[in-house]
Amino acid sequence: MRASLIQIAVNEGESVDSRRSRVAELVREQAGCDLVVLPELWTVGAFAYEQFETEAEPLDGPTYAAMSGAARDAGVWLHAGSVVERAGDGSLYNTALVLSPDGELAATYRKIHRFGFDQGEAVLMSAGDSLTTVELPEQTLGIATCYDLRFPEMFRGLVDAGATTMVVAAGWPARRRAHWTLLSRARAVEDQSYVLACGLAGTHAGVEQAGHSLVVDPWGEVLAEAGPGEDVLTVDLDPAKVPDTRAQFPALKDRVLGLRPPARR
Ligand SMILES: O=C(O)CCC(=O)C(=O)O
């Protein structure tokens, strides 16, 4: 199974429309891959809070339209990153879209852990409350977005739902790049899963992005890592490696759930 992660540079000066057209071409260039992954909020920019209202779109909006055609032309499964979704009741969500090779919307995921500590996304967006997995012919994708990477219990929920490859679309700031790499590897090791972590590059709204997207195998080895700028990572994954790792080193079987809190004395 061949996967490509497209680490998109979002810089001031490029309109959302021209970026959409440019990215659609980049997706088309990945024909021959099985899966293509894009970053979080690559249309508007993950930190461009003042544009969230104006660039919000319904699930079948302009990003879906552009990505649907690109997925179909390339014949790939496409995790199209996330968009600012305007829901029917007017509220906004940070919503990931997964398209099948015929361009249909196969799954959506509304980001559960909003970033900002009572500012930015955390106040502008509503929170999702459901996990999303996507069945591909040889693997099950577990979908997560950026700040979610810090919450291992969410990934354990994805493992329990059958996920074998975690796909993390992000707009991770350069300032905490070390956390990005460390947490991507930690999720791979503890969940004995592939992790495809695809971030933004460039600088928007004054926030330099980390880039350095990476693909980690279920043993925690980094199979490929991007540089700081716009980049495409193409990696061959062996779906058998997940069950093999889980069988050879069956730590997931030793989980103890429902521990009692410490006794009060
Ligand atoms: O957790 C972090 O350091 C970055 C999270 C983030 O930027 C986001 O979720 O948009």
TrEMBL record:
GO molecular function: acyltransferase activity
Keywords, comma-separated and alphabetical: Acyltransferase, Transferase
Stated name of the protein: Acyltransferase
Entries under InterPro entries matching the protein: C-N_Hydrolase, C-N_Hydrolase_sf, UPF0012_CS
Pfam families in UniProt: CN_hydrolase (PF00795)
Domain CN hydrolase: from-to ranges: 1-239
The family this protein is said to belong to: Belongs to the carbon-nitrogen hydrolase superfamily. NIT1/NIT2 family.
